User: Fold this.
Amino acid sequence: MCRIIKNIFLANIAFFLVITLLCGTFFLRYGLYGYDTSIQCGFWYVFLRSDCMVTYGYLLLHTIFLDWVIINTLVLVILLVSKKTPSPFASMGISFAIMYLGNLEVINNIVSTPFVTRIFSFLPVNALNILGVALVPTIKLGNIDIYWFYILEISYVIAFIFFYVWLMRQEYKNKSINKVV
Assistant:
């Protein structure tokens, strides 16, 4: 099995173990109590400003899916960075910069406009924060509300496919070069 698939497999095992542990403990403690509650009516008052008309259960499902896609995309980005950099320290530094720079809370203190918020919400550190994603203003197309987490999910799925194809092509190209030599 190639290195790309092994790394994605390992990341998925770790991800699903953590999600199972977190969701399992909450389910054992609270059951399904509150999952059908609108996020504006819930315990956390942070969602009062959100225009997402969803329930906590719906938001949880989208959180799990979005986090899963982001983690898999980050694995591919880190593999690509490690292939393109000369040393492990450089690849670690660039990978940490990709993952953690551009925190939306810092950016909003400097410039706070919906456009800037939407642009910086694509960065992994912000996309993994569902509290911040739920506060990004909804896009309205006529009678249709497009919540921002839908856009992030689609964007990260496209990014995952792009990086996966790119890395697999490089892998096969390296294998064919090694066979010739």
